[in-house]
Each structure stands twice: as C-alpha cells, then as structure tokens.
Fold these 3 entries.
Entry 1:
Amino acid sequence: MDKATVLKAIIEQRKSTFPRDYTAEEIDDQILHEILKSAEFAPNHKRTKPWRFKVFKGEEKRALGEKMAEIYKATVAPQNFLEKKYVSITEKAAKADAVISISVNFSGLVPEWEEIAATAMAVQNMYLTASVHDVGCYWSSPGLINHLGEFLGLDENQKCYGLFFLGKI
C-alpha cells in the first residue's frame, strides 16, 4: 500500500469513542507515550508549541473526576442539578484508562487563534495515533473546564480547552 492510501485509511477510521465503550484493558505506557509524542509534530507558528497536556491515571484520574463533579455541584443552579449527571461525571473518568487535560499556553508572540489552532492540530495527531493503536478517544469540552485552572496548576496566560479521554476498545 502506498503512503497516500495508508494515510487516507487512518484519517477515515479516526472517530470519537466515548468512555462507555472502553474496555477495562490498560493502554500500554509506550503507546500512551507515542500518542503524546505525536502531538509535538503539529505545526505551530514561531515554534511556540502552545499545547500543554497533563496525563491523569489511577489516583490522579479519580481526583480529577471528583473535582469535576464538585465543580458541577458548585456551579449549577439547584433547580437544574441532576444527580444522574453528577454521578456520571466521576463514572466517565473512571471508565477511561487515562484522561489528558488540553490547555493552551498563550505566548504573546502570535495571535491567540494560532495558538488554539496549533493545539487542535496537536490533538488531531493524538487522535490519529490513538486510532492506529485501537485506542478509543474523544475530546470533551464541558463548561466546567473553565473552573479547572487552579486544579491543573495553570498560569495566568494559560487556559484549559478540554479533556481527552482514552481507553482500549
């Protein structure tokens, strides 16, 4: 198969797979590293590499799920609070083998939209790499991510743009 055909097949098979469809099998650390490493090859103006990823596994992942549930409970109006949604937040994190926070570091060297676009391309590389390894993934951007900055240790010039859930399929 020529390179163009292989590339086309990889792009066409890329899809979002949600945690409810993940198996209990762990993602090999080498594959997780390869997924993250692929992000580094995304184009970025002035080589700012604006993406900031933090991997959550095990106890850290459980703490992230609990923090997101806590944020949901604290920020939703009491009349709109849904116990089912509250519980599902921690369940979704638990079902994933790994969760990666996706943040952008705004360098001030280029327009902000370029830093966001470069980060999105980095995540696309991660999607494609995960796909070839039969790792399901999806980028989630619930409103509660706007309250994760302190938990993630983000600086003033950084912003979280979502969470990347991964699990074997």
Entry 2:
Amino acid sequence: MNTYKFPEGFLWGGATAANQIEGGFNEGNKGLNVAVVLPGGKARYDILTKPGFDFEIKPDQYYPNHEAIDFYHRYKEDIALFAEMGFKAFRMSIAWTRIFPNGDEIEPNEEGLQFYDRVLDELHKHGIEPVVTISHYEMPLHLVMEYGGWRNRKVVTFFERYANTILTRYKDKVKYWMTFNEINSALVMPINGLGFSIEKEEDRYQPTFQAYHHQLVASAIAVKACHEIIPGSEIGCMILFAPVYPFDSNPDNVLHALKEEQIFNYFCGDVQVRGEYPSFMNRYFKEHNIQLEIEENDLEVLKEGTVDYVGFSYYMSRTEKKEKAAEDASEGNIIGGVRNPFLEVSDWGWEIDPVGLRISLNKLYDRYQIPLFIVENGLGAYDKIEEDGSINDDYRIGYLQEHIKAMGEAIEDGVDLMGYTSWGCIDMVSMSTGEFSKRYGYIYVDKHDDGSGTLERIKKKSFFWYKDVIKTNGKKL
C-alpha cells in the first residue's frame, strides 16, 4: 500500500453550509432566504431544476431547513467534536440574511454579526482555521421577490455592501474566504445560485447568463476588497467540478463531451481565475442568442478581481454522448449525462469515481496553475444504529479512503493541493432532496425526514478513522 505524502500544514477538515446546519431561521432578527422556502423530500430536485416555483411557504409542507440540526444553539458542542477529530480547518458559510435580513438594508444586523463572532472565536479556541464562504445557496428572499434575484444589476451593490461588512468585521478572524458556492451549478439549479426560477425552459439562457455576469462582477469586487481589507488573506472561487468523459471514441462524442466540459466546468472558473471571458463563450452566446449588458468598467473589474486559489466540490464524474435516448440517462447524477458502465453508484444513484478526482485535480491544475482546495467530497448514505449504539459506516470509510488516495496520487503528479474539507462532517439537511436520511457525516444527528428526532450527536466509526487520517497527515488510511 502506498504511503501518501501530504504537505505540511495541509488543511484537513470538514465542510458545511449555514442553511443546512444552523436552523434558527427566525431567530436573531434573521430574514428569510431561498433555502427556507424549499420543502423537504425528493420532489425538491424538480423544484430546483424546473420552471415555475413560487417561493412561498405553505402550511401543508415540511421545511427542514427551518430547524436543520440546530447548530445555531449547539455550535459549541459541534465544534468540540470537530476539534476532537483534530480538524485543522472548518469550512462554513455566513447567512446573508443574518447580516442583512432583507439584503438591501444600509445598516447590518448586529445580532447576526455577533453570532458569527462567537462561532469564529469558538473555532479559534480549538485551533481550527475557519474557511468562510460568503454566499452559499441562501439568497435573501426579499431580493428574489422584489428585484428578481441576480438578474437585477442592483444586487451587485447589495452584495458588495454585505461582503465589505463581513470582511471588515472578521478581518482578524478569517484568513481563507470563498465568494460563491458552486457558482456554475446555477446552469442546472438557478434557484439556489441565482435566486430565480426559470419561467419557461426555452427562455433559460438570456436571464441565466446576464445574472452570471452580475455575479461574476460581484465576485471580483469581493476578491479585490478582501485583498485590500485583509492583507495576507486568500480568497478563492468555488466550482462544482465533474470531469466529462466521452461515452466512447466516436469523435462526435469526444467533441460533445469537450463542449459540455467547457461550459459547465470551465466558464466560471476561467473568468474568476484569468479575469476575462473565455473565447469559447463567444460562439455559445451567439448560438443561444445571448446578449450581455456589460457596463463600462465591468471587464476591468473582472481583471482586477482574480482569485488566489480554486476551491471545488467533487462528488461524481459525468459521461456524455451526442445522441442519447432516455434509457441511457444516469438517473442519479444531478448534472446529467449517461450511465457509465464501469462505475458503481451510491444509495442515491450518484456514480462513485475516485479516479475522477485525480483526473479533476490534474485538469484544474494544468489549466490554472494556482493552488487547489477540495472543499466538498463525501458519500451520502443510509446509516443504521446497531443495538449497542454504534454506527459502522465502513462504506463511507472506503469511499473516503479511495478519494484521499486519489488526492495523494495527484500531489505526486505535481498538483498543488492546499486542503481537503469533506462534505458533511456532521449529518445535515441534504441540499438536493431536503432529506436528513441522506447522511454524509462522521457525526450522526438524530433527526429524521419527518422532522422527528432528539438532535443527539453520535460518533460514527468514520469519526475515529478520520481522526487517525488527520493525526498522521494522511499516512494512515
């Protein structure tokens, strides 16, 4: 068995999102965001991807993000558990609506700012480095209903005010930042990332890419502000990355896979890393009749606001062919594609491909030549509590072992990898389905799909395994 050599100071840890763990949705003067109007259950994915969502809370629906796992009240207990595992870093997000409840206020909400002061202080007390995402799938609902989400240029100004507020407030507490979570995912799920529901499928392109332009400008503004407000800080982009394989060696399928990878995997990253729109987008805009409204200084802003590192999530690869029938579809993969016959799938149908992580790391580093940071990777699975109270999640350990091996191989390939915060270090609400039963964590939370449960925290077998991985800096897998 290979012994992998990870860099000294490698940022081992775990990742979460405010909307999926905090709860306390109406406490501390917090406003409503898009996450709290999404009902639980497998129907959620259709809401996220298909036209016509109304963003209303209905009395006959269950909304799991309202309480989530109650990190809002239990953060000290949870952070102590992360510290027990030896976390070097904890990826978290700040809820925009805790700081600006409607999103367009002039003055921030002091109660929300104080909450994150306490969380960040608790992390530092345990020697854990915070890695903070500024916007993670929780746009203020008022900005959605009043302004139309990121389609509206005014939102750039509101985001700039929010970003400057938290960068200034936490400048002595946070070194590592990211702007928008999985920014490219809005090509599939615009509600989460861009704050609007497509009205008609055929009208998807123009509003989506205009909103993207506004968001990319806002990201660049935040990057520049971070460098000015916090000297020595590092701020990255965050991409949902899934390498795209051609189904076979048919040149038509190879070309189709290339085009899909350019648009989904590289468009946003190219703008945020290189500071300009990639040339391949010119044809794409022309073919889809997209005409961007670009203000006078926007391109200069993009050039001045390039990121220090590329953060990305990796859960699956994607296989494509140009002509595909309905029966070819890979049902579980949330970003489409056809079934890859060489891969096993998770309980939720997500294809499991650790080699794809090594491929992704090599592709990204070859393209950008700046440090990479895996800020999400993990296995959503059903967990069972045994009669003795233990949870033997060997399937999760096996999944993570193979992906960490792939990381070690990529480092040997020459990739500059700065850290690994696996997704769902503690069980939480699933983003795509709103389920609690889709568990990722090293820590089990007694919370169930119907909202029942005590919220008790239980260490799984993987808790102790990951503790050893961190303690040995990846030597003991």
Entry 3:
Amino acid sequence: MISKIVWRAFTLLYGTLVLTLFTTFALLDGSLFQRPTEKEKKELAIAQQKFWDLSKSPLGLKHKFFTLKDGCKLHYVEKLGTNSSKNLTIFIHGFPDSWILWQRLLTSSRLSQNSALVAVDLPGYGGSDGLPNYSANAVLETMTAFILGMREEYITSRGDGAGKVFVVSHDWGSIIGYRLASEASQLADRFIISCAVYPQQTYATIKAHFASSSKMLHTWTQRPFSVRLLKSALKTISPVLKQASKSGYVFAFNLPSPLANFCGRMGNMWLLRLMHRIATGATEPSGKPLLLGFTEAAEAMTASLGPGPAQFGASDAKEGYPDSVKRRAPTGGWLEKIRIYREGLVLGQWEKSIETIVRLSEIDRGSPHRRSSSGAGLFENGPAGSLKARATVVYGKKDPAFESKLTLEDISDYLTKGSQVVVLNEAGHWVPIEKDSAEVLEEVVGWALEGEEGSLKTRLERFGTVKVTIDK
C-alpha cells in the first residue's frame, strides 16, 4: 500500500516536472500562444481531403471498414496486387499515427505482388471507433478480432486457404504485436516488430537492474570507502535512469486529464508538431529538428488528426466514418489517443473470450483456417511472456524513446527459433518513414513475403549501417 502511494506521488511529481519543461520549451520556441493560421488551416483541409475522403482512392488504396460483433467499427485501407490473394500483410501503427504512417510500404509494387496489404487504424485513431476502455482485454480482443476477420476475408474467402499472414507493426502497434506473438501466436506466420520495447522483457530487465544495484549499494554501505563498488552500482542502474528520462512524456500523459490534455493541446498542438519534425530525421545546423513546409506539415498532422469536417458530409461512399470519429474531430482526439498509455494495456492481463479461444484453436487445428507456420516455439521453454511465433525485431539505435541496453538486453531468451533482431545504427524512432530506414524495413517485409529465401543477414548486407545481431 505504501509503495503504491510513493509510486503514485513520484509519477505525479515527475509528470508535472515534464509538463512544466514542455511548457517552457513551447514558450521559448514562441509556440505556446500560437493559433493555426489561415494558410495552415487550408493546407490541413487539403491534406485531409487527400487522405481521408472515402469516395477517393488515396495513393491507389481503397478505404474499407470492418465491424466487430460488439459494433466497434475499424477503418483500414487495402492494396491488392497481381498475385495478392497468395498472402496477407497487416500493418499496425502506433502513437500518434494512423494508416498513413505506412504509405511507402503500402505503395510498394514489390510487396503487393506477393500479398494483399492492409493497414488498420487503431481504435481511437484515424477513422476508427473508440473503445469504452483501453485495457489489455479490450484492445487485444479488438485487434485479434480484426486480424481473424482479415484472415477470413483475404486468406479463406479470396484465396485457397494456404496463404501466409504477416503482421508488421510500429511503436504501440508493436507492443500489441509483441503481446499477440506471445499470447495469440496462431494469428500470423511472422510478426515484424519495429521501434518498441517488449513489456515483459523490459520489465524483467529493469527489475534485475534494480535488484543488482540494490545489493551492491547495500554492500557499499558496509564498505563506504569502496569507490569501485559504488561506481558499479551506479553503472548498473544507469540504463534504468536513462530510460526514465526518455520516457518522461509517458508520465506527463498519465497526469490528471485536464493536465494531460493541456500537454497535447497547448501551443497549436506544439508537441505533435515537434514529434513530426523529429520523425523526418532532418535537422538544422544547430541540431534542432528541421521545420516542415506547409504541405509537409499538414500531411504529417492529418496522419495524427484523422478526418476533418469535410469528410463527414455527403459522399459517394457506401459507408461513412463512425460517429465517435466525428465527435473527436474538433480536438484531434488527443485524450482518446493517450488512453493507451493510461489504462493498462502494457502489462494488463488478457482474459481471452471463449470465441477468441475457439477461433485461435481452429487455426491450430488447421480447419477451416490452416496455419502455415511450423509452430516453432510452441514447445520451447523460456521466460514468462516468451514469444511463441517467429518474430523479426527491427530497432533504430538512435531511437530517442528507448534505451537500447534495456530494449535489447536478453531479448534473445524471449524469441523463438527462426527469429531475428535487426539493429539500424543510424535510424531513429520512425523507421517506416525515414527514407533509408524505410528501405530496410521494406527489404525485411519483402524477404518474408518471398518465402524467406536465404538468410535475412545476407539480404541486408547491402545496407552498410544495418546489423543482424540475433539470428536464431
């Protein structure tokens, strides 16, 4: 009880400190009291029309909706190629994005030759319905139902049932991907997971660092002149402290709702705009993220804000966006988006519904949805939460959100046979849109779709700054 109170007090104080720093930075940047200009409003409206008009086909993609049995309506886009009935690739974005994050891979003729490509908006994002809550149960049940529905639509109904399914994810989509690969491995033949920590592994690693450091500090109190021992204790806990500093925004997002809302809404959505500037990877001579042009900034913002007022009017489309999307449109849905940080998705227990258990077991039995993977890992031992499906983890070494030592330490223990870890030495967090990094990710997905011929390490040799650090 006391530990919970202490932790809650710490999170409140730290979150308030981070919010204060954000507010100060926005003030110094001259953005705190800014309002959108007419030029910005016009460019945003154009971008929203380009990507969210249901009567159009943005980038040659088709808007579609999938309605779950509970009435939740998820928006996704589809790309079908010449031989796309063979396989299915599902893309899942993270915070604060939407399907637009994946536009480079979705428009790849190479990928669409071998697979139907589907990119979904997470619940509460883009054109998808929100959920009553964002617990592990609610989110994982929803995403499992969506993937099962896509398997039925693209593998069973359109194909011969023998095609493979791949899930490609980023950020929070990857946290979901990790959990599905561990707890519902039947869903896909391979999970390609980019730019996220694996909650079970990271939590265990942090606990181990704390325990080891505590023991050394306790010993040091008995031997206070042992400078070496003190240095070792501090070195052991250092990665945890670094991660805490990098995750400061998470504490701000978990402040009481009015403060958390202010964090995202202040200064004409200053924080969102900063994220999009960082995502490009381009910097000014001073090292600051490069300012985006009007059109580029508008298209980046519409990826986060979703449809605008013009997309809820009369349309030639047979089906429209859910009412919840319309309700959150005026504010961009900031509070809805950060609920995945606030409501226990990371480590919360997932009590699968009877329907989910039955449908997953049907895939295992091979009828009516035959699982084409080898089942590698189903009978292997490993730490709690170990992945049961083959996974390829893609990590940018310069990712500002994660401390690499914690993210990758002992991760091999959690991976099953046939899995890899790919480290991009020059990449940041938004691998799917960073020019060179996106090319690497496309190569990884292409390798999977093309039957995994040859080793992934050999495929990636032409990228000089990429290293396959684990290949099980």
